[in-house]
Amino acid sequence: MNTYKQIIKHLEQCFDSFDRSYISMKIEDYEMKQKGIQNWWKAPTKINGYTDWDQLHRIGGGKSLTAKLSGINLKIAKDMAIKDAEATIKSRNSKMAKKLEDFGINEIYKTNLIMTSNGFDGHYNVRTDKGDKVIRIQTVLCGGYNIQALHYRTLVNISK
């Protein structure tokens, strides 16, 4: 197995509980927005007699997500949330693994992962082409409560 695949596998194992929580939060977020959209359509807000589309988009988390969640039931919204969350997780792991591989990492030999209420702080002792290094990966969940969609923010730092 090449280094990139080893790193991906390790990341998936380390972040399993965090990712399950993220999927759950994404489902909750999509369901809340889908219900809000349905309720808005029962009594659309108006400004000076004109439909207030901006209000609908705020409720739905932006134009794209509003369009995605309009006219569907909760089961479909849940399935979309799972699919979107899994795609985000896969993309995050791939980007992180690529970045770590670009640092010349050959092996992760020690991991210290601290879960926080909105993310995690990971310290990884690694072997690289240029000797042993410490990598710090910080990830927090952002958005999800207003117009901004729930997403990850990840920082990766390497030191001796």
Question: Could you explain how this protein is built, in words?
Answer:
- The chain has one domain (3-159).
- 52% of the residues lie in helices and 29% in strands.
- The protein has five helices and six strands, in the order H-H-E-E-H-H-H-E-E-E-E.
- It has helices at 3-14, 16-42, 53-60, 63-69, 74-102, and strands at 46-47, 50-51, 105-116, 119-128, 131-142, 151-159.
- Helix 3 (53-60) crosses helix 4.
- The chain starts with a helix and ends with a strand.
- The relative contact order is 0.16.
- The mean pLDDT is 85.
Radius of gyration: 20 Å
Strand order of the largest sheet: 3-4-5-6
How is the main sheet built?
4 strands, antiparallel
Shape: elongated
**Total domain count:** 1
- Structural class per helix/strand content? alpha+beta
What's the average pLDDT? 85
Strand content: 25-35%
Q: Which sequence of SSEs, written as H and E, runs from N to C? A: HHEEHHHEEEE
Question: What's the short story on this structure?
Answer:
This protein has about 160 residues and is of the alpha+beta class.
Primary descriptors:
single chain, 160 residues, alpha+beta, four-stranded antiparallel β-sheet, two-stranded antiparallel ribbon, 5 helices, 52% helix, elongated
Q: What topology does this entry show?
A:
Blueprint lengths: L2 H12 L1 H27 L3 E2 L2 E2 L1 H8 L2 H7 L4 H29 L2 E12 L2 E10 L2 E12 L8 E9 L1
Antiparallel strand pairs: 1-2, 3-4, 4-5, 5-6
Helix pairs in contact: 1-5, 2-5, 3-4
